[in-house]
Amino acid sequence: xxxxxxxxxxxxxxxxxxxxxxxxxxxxxxxxxxxxxxxxxxxxxxxxxxxxxxxxxxxxxxxxxxxxxxxxxxxxxxxxxxxxxxxxxxxxxxxxxxxxxxxxxxxxxxxxxxxxxxxxxxxxxxxxxxxxxxxxxxxxxxxxxxxxxxxxxxxxxxxxxxxxxxxxxxxxxxxxxxxxxxxxxxxxxxxxxxxxxxxxxxxxxxxxxxxxxxxxxxxxxxxxxxxxxxxxxxxxxxxxxxxxxxxxxxxxxxxxxxxxxxxxxxxxxxxxxxxxxxxxxxxxxxxxxxxxxxxxxxxxxxxxxxxxxxxxxxxxxxxxxxxxxxxxxxxxxxxxxxxxxxxxxxxxxxxxxxxxxxxxxxxxxxxxxxxxxxxxxxxxxxxxxxxxxxxxxxxxxxxxxxxxxxxxxxxxxxxxxx
Length: 418
Description:
Blueprint: H1 8-18, E1 21-25, H2 32-37, E2 42-45, H3 51-60, H4 62-66, E3 72-75, H5 82-92, E4 100-104, E5 121-125, E6 141-142, H6 143-147, E7 155-156, H7 161-170, H8 181-204, H9 210-222, H10 230-238, H11 246-258, H12 289-295, H13 300-304, H14 307-328, E8 331-337, E9 343-350, E10 355-360, H15 367-380, E11 391-396, E12 400-403, E13 409-412, E14 416-417
Parallel strand pairs: 1-4, 1-5, 2-3, 3-4, 6-14, 10-11, 11-13
Antiparallel strand pairs: 7-12, 8-9, 9-10, 12-13
Helix pairs in contact: 7-8, 7-12, 7-14, 8-12, 9-10, 9-12
């Protein structure tokens, strides 16, 4: 399979020039190893078949394990958790930066590490591909350029609504980019089955109830892009004649988080003019909307016939892409909600203090209210302590990109890039 250029290359290059080692994390099949191979000059691949052999090498002759041209890729390092501390010590004895690249699909072993590797090992996430990386978005408008204050002329987005539906179902998995929708559905449902039957049990050595875990994931899928509490998830499960304790549910959600299956959207805490209380409950999302679609057995036709659920999954698709684009620009994505009822779908916060607010609305009939909300938020910010927003925008599935008379940008998702 031909390598698909990833936006994460920019951040990986920067991290290799900054840290002595880099740990690349993310869900299975997101392309972590393939990305790392574009930068590595030697590799070692850990598998269940060679774990004992490599443990022996680490005990008797660790220099053999770390020998080779640098950067050296150590794939699925978490199969031998001691590798983390060994790398941390190894780089202290070697000069230079970007010596090792560690890749893994589970964060479970980070909990067991006594040393974080801070200052020595930089950690970055690789998510499934954005529409731009998949070759679906035209990339005519760049978020980085919007942050720089560059303007654009009105332009048309060629991506149709039914295509957004198809790519919600297919997802951003590199190996599935050329699959038909039906092929993607089969693969994604197999992904979920493997998650339920194997992966969750490997994370912590516990045996999770497969049926109960399935109901947890189904509840998350039904409430995607929503501020659903753990209590509501418990109630959803109990409604199906099953039960789950509060602590058990927390455990199940933590496992999904450690496998990079879910990635909640946390709250933004800006400096405000008033003492408005900011709500802190996260909104629930999968790291790729195709996971939730597979759990609910959705198809693009079903999405097109139910625009209520389509809208929620479109927001999830937009969040995945905006997260990828923001990460490339050393930014993070949050949500905003306060006690006065003002909600904003996404806030992009860059490391230099610049920020932007985005609402997600599939159709133009919601633009006026969304624009009003964005302007209300901008007015709440204390500009003596924070910068003014670089831009306010509505991410949409409509055809045209343009600037409204009130300054709010209309940005079709299929026209964006980093």
